[in-house]
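User: Predict the complex.
Assistant: Input components as received:
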Amino acid sequence: MAKRRLVIGGNWKMYKTPTEAATTSKALKVKLINVEAVDVVVCPPATALLAVNQILKDTVVKLGGQNLHWADEGAFTGEISAKMLKDAGCSYVIVGHSERRHVFGERDEGLNKKAIKALQEGLIPIFCVGETLDDRERGRTEAVVREQLQNGLAGIVVDDPGSIVVAYEPVWAIGTGVNATPQQAEDVHAFIREFLGQLWGKATADQVRIQYGGSVKPQNAEELLGQENIDGALVGGASLNADDFAAIIKAGQSVS
Ligand code: PGA
C-alpha cells in the first residue's frame, strides 16, 4: 500500500508572544516554500494565531488551535470556541494533548465532546492518546490507549478519513528527550489502526493519519516517519525553532 500523505504538526504550547511567533513564521515561510509532499500545520498560542495567519495564510502551512471548548459560546472564562478558531484562520485543533489530560485534568468525556464539536465545525481534530511510563511498565499500554480511543471517539462516525488525525504520544517521551523507538511507536500505531478499523471499518482506518509525538527531532525524524503506520509527527520543542522544524519536514519529504 502506498504511504499515506504525512502530516507534520508543530505544537508551540505556551511559548512565543505574537511578536516572536511572527518572527518564527517569517522564517518558516522562507524555509518551507518548496514543500509539497507533506501536510504541515503549526499550533501557536491563541494570542498569536492572527499574527501567524497573516504571514502564513498563502503558504502550505495550515494553522491549528491547541484546545477548544465544545459549546458555541457562553460564560466560559478562559475558553475558546471552534468558531473563534476558524475565524482566526485555523483548520486543525489539538484535542486531548497529554498536558491537557495530566496537568489540567481533562477527562475522556469532555474530550469526546470536543472532538465531536471540532468535526461538526469542520476543524480537523488531532486527537491525542498515550500511556504514562507507569502504564507501560505495567504492560498496560494497549489497554490505556484502547480506553482513550473508545471513550474519546465514542459516537463518532468518520466517513472522510481526512477529517480527523490521531496522535500517539507516549507521555514518557514528551519533552524528555527520550523518544519511543521506531519499533515501539510502530507497534502502538498498528494497534491504533486496528482499533480504528473496528470503529470505522478497515478501508477508512487504512487512510486515517496517525502521528507520532514525543521528542521528535531532526536526528530521529526520518527513521520514525519511515515506519509503515507512522503518518506524521506532532512536534513540541523542536518545532519552536524554524531550522529544526524545517529539517523534520524535510525528513518527512524524503520518506514520502
Ligand atoms: P516534544 O513534545 O516534541 O517536546 O516532546 C511533543 C508534544 O507534546 O506534542
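Residues 11, 169, 174-175, 213-216, 234-238 surround 2-phosphoglycolic acid (CB under 6 Å).
Let me know if you want any component modeled separately.
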